[in-house]
Amino acid sequence: MASAPSREIAYHPSTVTRSAKLLITGPFGVGKTTLVGSVAPLLLRMDESITEASVGVDDLRGTPEKTTTTVAMDFGRLHLNESLVLYLFGTPGQVRFRPLWEGLADGALGALVLVDTRDLDRCHDLLDLLEEQGLPYAVAVNRFDGAREYPADEVRQALDLADDTPLTTCDARDRASCVQALITLVEYLMTRLPPSAG
């Protein structure tokens, strides 16, 4: 009996020679799932409906229309150019998911941290966690409709960012601005590679 012909499954073009695992992180409701979905097909999305159990725990003031929350991760794949593919892991935003966050950070080269200028204080615990993990990151201010815009130096000071930490803006619904934010992160990570690795 003849065996069925084997089919090779191609997950990316043969021109891809490099890949990078990146976290898309930030506080609850800041737009992480939206960003991943804007730049890459969402290959895995693990959302659950927001229930009464989240009342008083999850802050919906900035996003009152939000009905779901990421409970594990979002995963997407973006071909930045013909030789480089980015694997994007969107993290849950709530502190109670910290053990899961730490697992997702394992093996990541860096993180893009989304922030909302309407409540920058929610970012400090996450930035501290990134520092503890030694994970380099760039910060992107997500432009929410109606949110006040602040000069970059004021945002940098409010978040207590190091001088070399990239700070950019994006609209998580707009693919081009999100890709540019990811390019900003990748370029920053490239500067941190040993000379032989670049």
Describe the fold and architecture:
A hairpin with a 4-residue loop joins strand 3 and strand 4 (84-90). The protein is 26% helix and 26% strand. The chain is α/β, with parallel strands linked by helices and 198 residues long. The relative contact order is 0.18. The longest helix is centred in the C-terminal third of the chain and has 17 residues, at 175-191.
Distinctive features:
198 residues; alpha/beta; seven-stranded mixed beta sheet; 5 helices; 7 strands; globular
Offer a quick outline of the entry:
This protein has 198 residues and is an alpha/beta fold. Helices cover 26% and strands 26% of the residues.
Helix and strand layout, with pairings?
Layout: E1 18-25, H1 32-39, E2 42-49, E3 68-79, E4 84-90, H2 98-105, E5 110-115, H3 124-133, E6 137-142, H4 152-159, E7 167-170, H5 175-191
Parallel strand pairs: 1-4, 1-5, 5-6, 6-7
Antiparallel strand pairs: 2-3, 3-4
User: What's the number of extended β-strand segments?
Assistant: 7
Helix content: 25-40%
Biggest beta-sheet profile: 7 strands, mixed
Distance between the termini: 51 Å
Query: From N to C, what is the helix and strand string?
Result: EHEEEHEHEHEH
**Averaging pLDDT over every residue, what do you get?**
80
From the spread of the alpha carbons, the general shape counts as globular
